[in-house]
Amino acid sequence: MSRAAATAAALAALAAAPLGATTARAEPPPLGATSAARAEPSPPPLTGALSAELFATGRQLEAGAQDGSAVELDRGEVGLALGGAGLAGEVRLETVRSAGPDSLLGVDGDSLVVRVKRAWAGGERRLGPIVVGGRGGAIAEPWVASLERDLDLRALGASLGEAAGWLAPSDLGAAVTARGWDDLVALDVAILNGEGLRLREQNDGKSLSVAARIAAPPLALAGLDHRAALHLGAREGSRGTGSARDHRLAAALTLAGPIGFAGAEVMQARGVEARAERIAAGVAGWLGGGWPGCRCGAALRADVVDLDRDRGATYHRSALAAGYLDLLDPGADRLRLWLGARADRFGDAAAPGATEALDRETYFVTLELAAARSLGGPP
Amino acid sequence: MTLCALLLGALACGEDDRAAWLRSTLIDDNRAALERDPDLVAGKLAKMARGPFELLRGTARQFHRDLADGAVGRPTAYGGTGAALIALVGDPHPENLSSFAAIGGGVTADWGDFDLATYGPFHLDVWRLATALRVTATTLVPDDDALADAVARAAATGYAEEIEAERGGAAPLGATAADAGGVLADLLDDAAERGAAARHLDRYTVSDGVRRRLILGDLAPVDGVVIGERLEPLDDDARATVAALVADYRRGRTDAAELAVKAAARQLGVGVSSYPSLRFLVLVEGPSEALHDDVLLELKEVGDPIAVPGRLLVPERRDRDAGRRWIRMARELQADYAEDPRYGAARSGRLTVRVREVDGYQRNLDLGDLAAALEDDALTADDLLELATVAGRILARDHGHARDATGTAGLAGIAAALGGDVAGFADEAAAFAADYDALLHDDLARFRALLEREGPLLGWSGGLR
Question: What is the pTM of this model?
Answer without folding.
Answer: 0.86
